[in-house]
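Task: sequence design from structure.
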């Protein structure tokens, strides 16, 4: 046996010699940023080996770590095995995150209640939001939010599904426990804040994407990750809290209602959004987009609903970016480039520690605007910029690679690889947008509104969306932000049996379009990769 001591707090853990360091640190409850689930792609799980023997530096580490870092004993936890007793220093700390909890609520008829409380929950791939509701009045009393604890198993749904493939029944249980334990913590928190007991909760309504819903219920999600991408269920689900492992209601008897879904990649969160935004009642042509690790799009053509999903990846949420981070305190969220230099603002006014999704889009918009990034996504050559040009010192060479320097202390840069990650996300979202329009036979100028929902979209000004070409310039003045429509949908079903019935019917009428099978999709995607 070997002994791991975390010097930050004195935690000690025993493990078998040869054990993977990242896995052991996560089991010990340590915070280690791990976007790629230990595959050695992201290079973010850095720790410092203070003392003791570990495996030799891998080729992956030699590529992702600088010589200075290696000299200091910094290693990638996912690439390091424990050879004996060690002392390890964690180099990251979990920061307070900004999580979107509010959104537009349409008029609807509520059921009559004379007592009790309900809970509306939105479980996203990245964040979880919980609201405690007084059923008699419909008033939201308090709310809680957190980062989805399944982050330890990967930042996107496919990485988490891969974890289930690799660990079978044990993996399914790990993912279920991660989200159930988190929801229980949030239930306890909102009840504590309101001065009530969890036994007073009568119902919990949950909106989530299809994968998250399966994992919450402990249902095998592996079929979602392989062709023909068939979920185990799409219909609305009803359980008791105790069946799932939630602590709510007398003897955990509270009803848990999980909203209906359309397909493997159009989940209850999008059905909720379509209902909240009353897309089926629209007279004109309205596009609804929820931008996150997946980009889900619904087109309402005078009430006919076509929908698709595109794999945007985690770049737009600050992940898979060299200096990227989630939207937490200290994250650069906006950037302006002028002849005076680079100006930026950080979340909560803190000192910069990284750059979040809105920040990477803002800086890319500026790089395109001032001509440092070409339409094909490549940096201009430094030798083609006059030395007296204010832009000249902003591009620097890292070996043969060009990168843009945002600030020097700490050193935060945007690399060519970062731009390619955003470019892939942009291509996915815009191509889905255009493919739906083509399918419906609608021209761009015939769109009446573009509704943006979700955590990420709420922090993006229209000029960042259109300035990078994620959305066409023609819709810039038609954009409406609707907030967390997923949680709003759960709130509405919680208070109305009629809304439950109508939402279930809506899910059945939404037409899912497989983008890869649409006409000329490869050409549309290739054209969508170009910046404006």
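Answer:
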């Amino acid at each position: 046996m070997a002994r791991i001591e975390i010097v930050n707090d004195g935690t000690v853990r025993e493990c078998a010699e040869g054990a993977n360091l990242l896995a052991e640190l996560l089991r010990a409850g340590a915070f280690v940023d791990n976007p790629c689930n230990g595959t050695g792609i992201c290079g973010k799980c850095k720790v410092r080996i203070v003392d003791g023997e570990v495996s030799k530096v891998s080729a992956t580490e030699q590529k992702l770590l600088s010589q200075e870092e290696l000299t200091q004993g910094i290693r990638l936890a996912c690439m390091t095995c424990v050879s004996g007793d060690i002392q390890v220093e964690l180099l990251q700390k979990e920061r307070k995150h900004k999580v979107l909890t509010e959104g537009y609520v349409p008029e609807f008829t509520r059921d009559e209640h004379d007592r009790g409380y309900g809970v509306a929950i939105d479980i996203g791939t990245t964040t979880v939001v919980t609201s405690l509701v007084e059923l008699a009045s419909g008033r939201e009393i308090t709310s809680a939010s957190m980062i989805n604890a399944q982050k330890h198993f990967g930042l996107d749904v496919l990485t988490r599904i891969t974890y289930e493939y690799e660990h079978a029944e044990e993996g399914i249980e790990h993912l279920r426990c991660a989200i159930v334990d988190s929801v229980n913590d949030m239930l306890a928190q909102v009840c504590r804040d309101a001065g009530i007991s969890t036994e007073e909760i009568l119902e919990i309504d949950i909106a989530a994407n299809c994968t998250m819903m399966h994992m919450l219920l402990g249902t095998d999600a592996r079929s979602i990750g392989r062709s023909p991408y068939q979920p185990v269920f799409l219909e609305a689900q009803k359980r008791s809290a105790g069946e799932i492992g939630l602590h709510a209601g007398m003897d955990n008897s509270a009803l848990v209602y999980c909203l209906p879904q359309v397909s493997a990649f159009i989940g209850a969160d999008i059905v909720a959004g379509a209902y909240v935004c009353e897309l089926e009642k629209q007279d004109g042509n309205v596009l609804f987009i929820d931008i996150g690790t997946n980009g889900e799009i619904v087109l309402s053509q005078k009430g006919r609903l076509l929908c698709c999903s595109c794999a945007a990846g985690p770049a737009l949420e600050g992940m898979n970016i060299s200096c990227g981070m989630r939207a937490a305190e200290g994250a650069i969220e906006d950037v302006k480039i002028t002849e005076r230099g680079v100006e930026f603002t950080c979340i909560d006014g803190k000192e910069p520690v990284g750059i979040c999704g809105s920040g990477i889009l803002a800086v890319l918009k500026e790089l395109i605007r001032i001509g440092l990034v070409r339409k094909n996504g490549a940096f201009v050559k430094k030798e083609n910029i006059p030395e007296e040009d204010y832009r000249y010192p902003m591009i620097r060479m890292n070996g043969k690679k060009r990168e843009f320097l945002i600030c020097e202390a700490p050193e935060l840069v945007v690399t060519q690889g970062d731009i390619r990650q955003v470019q892939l996300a942009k291509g996915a979202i815009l191509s889905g947008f255009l493919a739906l329009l083509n399918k419906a036979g609608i021209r761009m100028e015939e769109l009446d509104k573009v509704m943006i929902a979700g955590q990420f979209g709420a922090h993006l000004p229209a000029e960042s969306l259109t300035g990078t070409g994620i959305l066409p310039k023609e819709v810039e003045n038609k954009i409406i932000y609707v907030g967390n429509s997923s949680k709003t949908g759960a709130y509405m079903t919680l208070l109305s049996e009629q809304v439950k019935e109508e939402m279930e019917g809506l899910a059945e009428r939404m037409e899912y379009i497989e983008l890869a099978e649409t006409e000329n999709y490869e050409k549309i995607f290739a054209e969508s990769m170009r910046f404006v």
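The longest helix spans residues 157-194.
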